[in-house]
Amino acid sequence: MRKNTLFLSGFSSRLFGRRSETEASCLREKARKLDGLAAIVARFIPPELFAKTEKTRDRVFTPWVTFCAFLGQVLQRGASCQDAVRSVQAMYLAMGVNTVDDRTGGYCQARGRLSLAVLQTAFTRVAQWCANRPRKEDCWQGRVVKVLDGCGLSMPDTPENRAVYPYASGQKPGCGFPTGQLLGLFNLCTGHLVKFVVTSWRLHEAPLAQQLLGWVNKGEILLADRAFSCWGLIALFERKGVDVVMRLHQSRKTKLGRVTWRKPKRKNKMAQADWDSLPESLTVRVVRFNCQVPGFRTDEITLVTTLLDEVTYSTDVLAELFRRRWQVEICFRDIKTSLGLDVLRTKTPEMITKEIHLQAIAYNIVRALMLEAARQHDTPVFRLSFKGTVGALFAFAPLLNTTSKQAAERYEHLLLALAAAPVPLRPNRSEPRAVKRRPKPYQYLTKPRREMTVSTSRRQKLPITPLN
Question: What is the C-alpha to C-alpha distance for residues 222 and 413, in angstroms, rounded to an integer?
Fold first, then answer.
């Protein structure tokens, strides 16, 4: 007979057999992990934000419990809804309440009831927490640097997702996946995600960057690649008092040094009122430097910047700053590969938006832990491992499920463990973009799955380039 409750006090677990003892031990571990994760999240996001309203009836999956379970699911790439339900079930069993069954329908409905506005507020809270605590040593010449870049997203092939996020070009109906793009603004001093925009892949990144203009403050520096190097965007940031350092767009031909760019006739998908308010000319500085590092794809890089002081901001100084732009690729790797943002799993655009916000919140919470460890133990924040922090978070979570002084000491041990294992410094490391594992010799899906006929041949010749 299946037992859904923990053992009665005074009775040995041996009376229930070895299998029940193991199952109960796993449930207790899951309960402590969820409670500990909630305790850590509460340091950066107030639980009162998810308090139920008077009109909301009492539920097993309250907004706060659902949020913490969803967050734990996001932090563990590949975790299923069943895993999240098990953690909630274990938490209630540890409290002596047996009201959660094994089915995932209630949890999935509770995720759908999570307010997007509340999730956006939670993201803003943890982002502000990180923004207020940068280390002075991580700033560039005492100034905050923010990096702008984008990445692609894939999601389940459902009619609802296809209506908002169409297939990528060249995909046949039923043979691809809806594709979107995320444009993110990162703080280079802390590594956290400041703000992001999610749209279809068909929209260009440069016009979307105008939506992030309000999250770059006066006196800061914007670092970006050549996809954002357009006259209108540079003029908008300069008018706000933000200096830009961008790679020169490949289609623009200009001389080196200080140059004046006239206002083009095209408004570049900008509102007419904003375009008319921009000046008739723009003074910028163009520098060029060689990159002689083995393994780097580019030998010569040309930058355009509004930092006109050639003494303070020499070419070598700007080259070193632009080299730090690669850190945004590491940030995207953390959020896409470690957390699973590259392939989303929900089946409607509304849930896709909520899942992306949970991914962003989870990423910033991990960054907040890394930042707190870096500040307390005087370690550069980018020397700490993101994946190692996620592992340490779940390893220490069962020890942090109380509000006692002992839990505070254990949290200090967690921060010490994060700072004690810095990532080695490996400058100029050659990491060619090549795949070592060969793909499996299966046919490509060229028709919808129910119409596809698999060849009787066991192997198919794939266009594989041999690796030397």
Answer: 36
